[in-house]
Amino acid sequence: MKPLIIGSRGSRLALIQTQLIVDSLKKEYPLLDIQIRVIKTTGDHLEEQPIRDIDQRGIFTKEIENKLLEGEIDLAVHSLKDLQVELHPRLVIAAIPPREDPRDCWISLQHPHPSSLQTGAIVVTGSPRRANQLLRKRPDLRIVPVRGNVESRLRKLRENREWQGTVLALAGIKRLGIDISSFFCTPLSMDWMLPAPGQGALALQARVEDKHTQSLVKHLNDFSTACAVTAERVFLHELGGGCRTAVGARAEVEGSRLILEGIWWPQQAIEPKEGKVVGEIHRAEELGKKLADLLKNL
């Protein structure tokens, strides 16, 4: 049997996430030869440049998708929040494994929560979604853009004592397993911070015609996670969103019901539009569209 070649970004977090998939596949197929191929993306090359200044979609995924299309890899492992909603017609999401905690987390050396910050305190984040939601609660804060992986952001926070805190995805902190005992690490409630659509979830991507690879990974798919992130991503897509758009969404599954909350800042808007819809879990796409239409018409 030929080896299964998996494409991944080269960051420590990306490789840990890819190794999780490798380990899961090895449990099912102990004799399968699996190889990881590291692929550098535009987002990796432009690590210090603010995302809002990069005029390109798919900055963390496009090069990996190209290698998949060219047949150099068989499977791609992506952070789902980085993956474009509209896929290339020859590519398919073959599986979405169970999701890690989707919440954002407040990180600070001195302050347990952004509500305790003094007026004018500097918070660093490169995400318009995070910045807008922080300023909605605390319009007196100063937001300074920052980029880089989790470790580099924590290092910068330690080194620059003028910076009072930042916001990171809790899933990344958990998967990295890094020691953050010197920091306050406070998960933010949904009334403070709705996460990025798809945050905490992984996407396993394959070629449409490669039924063999699709069959290898289909057992890794988690139905509830897939429905939840589908609703979130359709909501984002209907609003024309991407990394530079201030859109937050969280879908939760309760039995056969799906509850989708969303928040959106239209371009140049000072105040957001927000709402919630509830429906049957198998109507995830419809719910995403329904919430987007609701917000557009507010």
From TrEMBL:
PROSITE patterns: PORPHOBILINOGEN_DEAM. The keyword Secreted does not apply. Residues 4-214 form the Porphobilinogen deaminase N-terminal domain. Pathway: Porphyrin-containing compound metabolism; protoporphyrin-IX biosynthesis; coproporphyrinogen-III from 5-aminolevulinate: step 2/4. Keywords: Porphyrin biosynthesis, Transferase. Its EC number is 2.5.1.61. GO terms for molecular function: hydroxymethylbilane synthase activity. Residues 228-296 form the Porphobilinogen deaminase C-terminal domain. The modification S-(dipyrrolylmethanemethyl)cysteine is found at residue 243. Tetrapolymerization of the monopyrrole PBG into the hydroxymethylbilane pre-uroporphyrinogen in several discrete steps. This is Porphobilinogen deaminase. The gene is hemC.
